[in-house]
Amino acid sequence: MEERASPDLVDERAESAELEEETKKEESAVNLEAVPVEKADALARQMQLVVVNRGDYLCKIIQRTYGYYSDYLLGILLSENPDIDKPDYIVPGQVIELPATNESN
After folding, report:
1. Cβ neighbours of residue 82 closer than 8 Å, sequence gap 6 or more
2. pLDDT tens over the chain, length 105 residues
3. Which residues touch 41 (CB under 8 Å, ≥6 apart)?
4. Are 78 and 84 in contact (CB under 8 A)?
5. Residue 15 burial (CB count, 10 A)
6. SS3 call for 14
7. 10 Å Cβ neighbour count for 57?
8. How high is the pLDDT of residue 31?
9. Of 61, 29, 57, whose CA–CA distance to 48 is shortest?
10. How buried is residue 58: exposed, middle or buried, by Cβ count under 10 Å (0-12/13-18/19+)?
């Protein structure tokens, strides 16, 4: 006859699997403490953080940052910010990552 695992054992296995997954995510994240200063500066320059103000919308942020708007730039912005589900709905205080302009590199 087949033995079934107790509910406590099943819970422990699930928690263990979740812990392993979290550990893998942390290990795969960029650890700036382990990166040389020169390389960390280069990583920081590759992205520009913008805080959404009241009345902002993505087209306006792109225009203000790059000096012009294009659907291509909007696509890049959305790919860099997967947490933006609806491009028409951003909120004040939200932080958006933009690829740095060539002038800032």
Report:
1. none
2. 555 655 555 566 666 667 666 655 555 444 445 545 555 555 555 778 889 999 999 999 999 988 999 999 999 899 989 999 888 899 999 999 988 765 444
3. none
4. yes
5. 10
6. helix
7. 13
8. 47
9. 61
10. buried
CA 26 vs CA 37, 55, 56, 89, 98: distances in Å = 21, 36, 33, 30, 23
How far, in whole angstroms, is CA 31 from its chain's centroid? 15
Q: What domains, with CATH codes, occur in the chain?
A: 35-104 (3.10.350.10)
Helix axes 58-66, 71-80, angle to 10 degrees: 100
Residue 68 DSSP symbol: S
* Pick from 36, 19, 32, 86: nearest CA to 58: 86
Q: Measured between alpha carbons, how far is 48 from 29 in angstroms, rounded to an integer?
A: 18
Report the greatest alpha carbon distance in the chain.
Answer: 72
Rounded Cα–Cα distance for residues 39 and 22 (Å): 26
